[in-house]
Target: DUF6286 domain-containing protein
Amino acid sequence: MIARADRAARHAFRPRRVWPALIAALLLTAAGVITAIEIVSAWAGSPAHIVPYGRVRDWAEDTAWEDTAFLAAAAGLTLLGLLFLLAGLLPGRTRVVPLHGDDPSLLMGVTRRGLKGAVASAAGDAPGVSGVRRVKLRRRRVRVVAETPVRESADLGGRVGAAVGERLDRLRPVPDRSVSVRVKLREG
Model:
């Protein structure tokens, strides 16, 4: 049941590829409208010639397949197509981190910024820590850089890691994340 709830939360909070989809839709719509205008105007007896396809046809007839200009145009169009394909297939960076739940009909999440704030707060509350320089969220890892005024801070990294781990255990983000801590001496 928990795995089903996690899958539902991951799917609900999946990032949407709005900009690549919008650009692709606009380009395809423009090409369709121009093609429709050209075809209808040609059927009516006076082609619109919005696209100077006479020049394009002449260029294509005079250009060899091995010509650099032709290969560059083909490579550019192929690259553009691959970029749109990759944008549609690869997942983007989520804005909301789903949280484990027991009920698939109840979806919970926290923003990446909110999760970073919770981790920084937990690290900052650890004894001996004077501040948190940076928190990095990765897919399966949280990296924390904590500051301390204490020169002998042998087990401080372990204490900060335990505090952050405890906070993550209470929040239960999907997927589970390991914690790595680096402690730096605060100059001052």
